[in-house]
């Protein structure tokens, strides 16, 4: 028994020594993958790419419910739809260049099914399935547009020529009928003195069915006005209105991406102001004057200011400042929108549509224009 134990011990010692002398070899590390484009070169780039409609119609407004799902309205009561970012266009209404029908000037979509469009004579059309359109109602020719909080509840702003106060009207039946809710006024310190002013709102936006914003102006005296800003937390039932101090133009566009963060555009591009506290305070943006211009905001990560007749400005810091670039297009721009930070669209005369997107750095396309990425 002692001999067997000694032999076993020797075997263990020999095997242990062999394991120490010949450690298991590790698999060689795989070399790091090298970029085919070279070290330090970007793999992606931002571009504007033409995706026009195929008939000579002026396009006036665009609304999107997703990165590639958009509706465009234009002359001859035309409504176009795309589900692939403009690669193909489907005519939902109009589309005949020889038609004498009224132009559609505004479009609003709550979601992929519920949308509204308005003619230049303030006739309102609606869809409940994203494709079939019916005439709903007609409002004042001074209407500034409609904004819906739900498929049934909507708001409309009218600016009568005979008064200095906007009338806010409300619909509870999807836009078929409208009832006045309130008229716009604002209390402000002007020249060190308290003033109660009538205000004329021209644009609005709702982040949620409760939280919304409105922009316009208030007349101080003949030919003199100040920018006016409104905020609601109850779906437009009541508003808190204020003015932007030391301004002299109306707000013509606004866009918030959170309840605190947003920008307003004065006089179609004369000035841009940003806020980080829901409009309690405003700071003027550092930018080169680009007027008149249209604006699209992609989640606050990118803000684009497109000149009607050329030029473009980009902001990637919430409107604090803009970088200007040359931007030559074949026709005049009429509207711009960004459904998110990586996708944008602009439309204009002669069926012009351009889309903004992020593509691989080696991507090429006829007519594409280099852009700034967020």
Please write out the topology.
Blueprint: H1 2-21, E1 44-50, E2 59-64, E3 70-74, E4 78-82, E5 90-93, E6 104-109, E7 115-119, E8 123-127, E9 133-138, E10 143-148, E11 154-158, E12 167-171, E13 179-183, E14 185-190, E15 193-206, E16 212-221, E17 224-232, E18 240-243, E19 251-256, E20 262-266, E21 271-275, E22 283-284, E23 293-298, E24 302-307, E25 312-315, E26 323-325, E27 333-340, E28 343-348, E29 353-360, E30 369-371
Antiparallel strand pairs: 1-29, 1-30, 2-3, 3-4, 4-5, 6-7, 7-8, 8-9, 10-11, 11-12, 12-13, 14-15, 15-16, 16-17, 17-18, 19-20, 20-21, 21-22, 23-24, 24-25, 25-26, 27-28, 28-29
Would you kindly provide a written description of the structure presented here, covering whatever features stand out?
The structure is a single chain. The protein is mostly beta strands. It has a domain at 153-284: 6 Propeller (Neuraminidase). It is 5% helix and 47% strand. It is built from 1 helix and 30 strands. The chain has a 5-stranded antiparallel β-sheet, with no helix packed on it. The protein has a 5-stranded antiparallel β-sheet with strand order 14-15-16-17-18, with no helix packed on it. The N and C termini lie far apart (81 Å).
